[in-house]
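Researcher: Let's walk through a ligand-bound prediction step by step. First, I give you the protein sequence. Second, the SMILES string for zinc ion. Third, you return the three-dimensional complex as structure tokens. Ready?
Model: Ready.
Researcher: Here are steps one and two:
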Amino acid sequence: MQMIDNRFVVDQAKKLRRSLWHYRKDLTIENIDDHIQILNPIVAAEFLDLIYEKPEEIEYYDGQKEIAGMLIRPEKKIVIAQKFPPEFRIFTAAHEIGHWACHRDLISHRDISLDGSIISSNIQERQANLFAAELLMPSKLVETELKLRFPMFFGQFIFNDDTAFILGEDLRTLREMPTRYRSVKVASVAPYGGMYLNSMHQRFKVSKTAMAIRLETLGFVK
Ligand SMILES: [Zn+2]
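Model: Step three, the predicted complex:
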């Protein structure tokens, strides 16, 4: 297995993000001014000149687990099974693009449905998840969207009476529960602040868990 470090993986995702923004006018995007619409694996595949196939399901079974995504490098092709929920399809597709960009030794690769919540023992799998999180949820955008929803947010989410009220949760419970409980709350609550805003995980089109993990990784929720 070819060894690359995580910094390389993150840099590749950042480079791709910058290219998508730079060439956004040439890509098929509904609203090119919305950064989050641009950070889409289908758009990334178009930019990378990859074929993106969308069958209802992938007829390949690996033990008991169903295949949700494939990378077939010689054909420059990514295949994503449509029967899984959109947030899993998007994350799995971003994961395959991560393999494409970082793991040249993966010629033909298959994955089960992913949202980054399963921590694999395989380093390439963890790196592809890291790439997906970096591509779909850039730090600055996550921070901006957090501030829109929680105006008192500054660098780190503070759990007090005010934020507990917004999160619709008892402050003591919030403080006593593990970090993941708090991060999932912040990821999944749609706060009402005079205008309608969807939740963080809906905004980034990822699962609650994927958003929660990202909030933790970036140090925004502890
Ligand atoms: Zn994989």
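Researcher: And what stands out?
Model: The chain is about 50% helix and 10% strand. The chain has a mean pLDDT of 92.
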